[in-house]
Amino acid sequence: MPDLVYFVATTVDGRIAAPDGGFDFFPQGDHLGAQVEALPETIPAHARQALGIDAAPRRFGSVVMGRHTYAVGLREGITDPYRPLDTVVFSRTLDPAAAPVRITAEDPVAVVRELKQRATRDIWLCGGGALAGALADAIDEVVVKVNPVLAGAGLPMVDGAFGARALVLGDVRRFESGVVWLTYRRAPG
Ligand SMILES: NC(=O)c1ccc[n+]([C@@H]2O[C@H](COP(=O)([O-])OP(=O)(O)OC[C@H]3O[C@@H](n4cnc5c(N)ncnc54)[C@H](OP(=O)(O)O)[C@@H]3O)[C@@H](O)[C@H]2O)c1
Known about the structure:
By secondary structure, the protein is an alpha/beta fold. The chain has five helices and ten strands; from the N terminus they run E-E-H-H-E-H-E-E-H-E-H-E-E-E-E.
């Protein structure tokens, strides 16, 4: 069965964005090339086009995100940011007919369960923290891209009810930029 993978950039103190949603403080560096190489489908489609990246998706067939995350591209007129991935946006306020992606107010856990049953490739949980909080129990793997930044405040990578879920450390990748990718799997049992 496909995995739900939370692949996300954070500061050392676990923030995925500034309090106002901005994220331009995340540094550039060699980790970005590694992301293009390993998971080109996680680079927004318009950036892929601008950079001449035409690699096919390597791991994911679909992506799920909350409305605030979707709004980042929408503000620039981008309505299908991770084409060709199947995109599901969770929102109780957006008009489902107004976008070329699936917009739903259904329970994220139920939607992901259904996606896992019919998907043939892994599902990327793009963010943000609110959606990750709703889906915390459905996450199979977390790949946290820890950036060498202390934010002090900002949006948390998981914003939900408390629940300490044990994880098992897998791969660790360290970059010249000071970024470290940590891969964790949900502990068995
Ligand atoms: N650093 C990274 O790698 C990364 C990755 C992704 C996002 N981000 C940043 O994260 C920020 C957004 O994160 P966020 O935590 O504020 O918001 P979010 O999770 O992206 O979106 C929250 C919205 O999603 C909808 N939603 C959430 N739970 C739902 C549920 N159970 N059922 C139906 N709809 C649900 C609601 O939309 P409605 O209000 O419309 O109902 C809610 O307001 C942005 O600034 C983005 O740039 C960073």
